[in-house]
Amino acid sequence: xxxxxxxxxxxxxxxxxxxxxxxxxxxxxxxxxxxxxxxxxxxxxxxxxxxxxxxxxxxxxxxxxxxxxxxxxxxxxxxxxxxxxxxxxxxxxxxxxxxxxxxxxxxxxxxxxxxxxxxxxxxxxxxxxxxxxxxxxxxxxxxxxxxxxxxxxxxxxxxxxxxxxxxxxxxxxxxxxxxxxxxxxxxxxxxxxxxxxxxxxxxxxxxxxxxxxxxxxxxxxxxxxxxxxxxxxxxxxxxxxxxxxxxxxxxxxxxxxxxxxxxxxxxxxxxxxxxxxxxxxxxxxxxxxxxxxxxxxxxxxxxx
Length: 304
Ligand code: DON
Prior knowledge:
The chain is globular. Helix content is 46%, strand content 12%. Strands 3-2-9-8-7 form a 5-stranded antiparallel beta sheet. It is built from 14 helices and 10 strands. By secondary structure, it is of the alpha+beta class. The protein binds 6-diazenyl-5-OXO-L-norleucine. 6-diazenyl-5-OXO-L-norleucine (DON) binds next to loops. 6-diazenyl-5-OXO-L-norleucine is lined by residues 62-63, 95-96, 114, 158, 165, 193, 256-258, 283-284.
């Protein structure tokens, strides 16, 4: 069990990095976030949460929501139905690239790039009467916080600037790998991305990835094997074209979002969430990655 002092030390060690990255600015609602925020929280499989810095402040989880979407899809579909429509390989391209979608006949490389997450959102839309409501229910229960909500401003703003995601969805539709109404699915996808959660909330919600598929309340979400598989996909694709560098420096399965959050997992032990809004060139939190690197070294823990 890490000491609180270690988490505080990790936060202070990366503070000098502030100013080196760039806050996401493709929508005004994200560009206006205070770039100086720094937070870290861990939750152990015993259910203890510790945090330092701005770890209780909610932020836009963005692509971290793709973990919840895939998990929910695994509870609704046969695995073969999911993997017929999306791959399991790292893309080596930016998270919102169209290039491979065209070259690879509309089958996205993995469920964590935008194309893959849009296919997963399409699957959820097809099987759930009210997918946005269901997602909120699942996430609230996972972290035990009924106040979790969508940020309508962020969701609406994403929808206003949705040309690239719409292009990806329509391109996949042209290959027959997108079944629903593009605008309806985009609305759901942007809402999932707009979930507002703190580092504490996210480290608690993600504990099932460290606990063989079992949540904080003792409920099984996915099987033990599916959890191992999810962690493998996170380790190879969770940080997009920065996945290799992240594996090298941090050595944990992880998922980032352009809001500056990153979740990481030490299987059997703990789920971690860091937050710092300034991003590196790949769209991953710059100081967030550094916090995880320090923590991994100080704990002497990684999966390799
Ligand atoms: O769809 C998008 O492009 C954004 N809502 C989410 C992208 C994202 O978080 C990528 N992560 N680093």
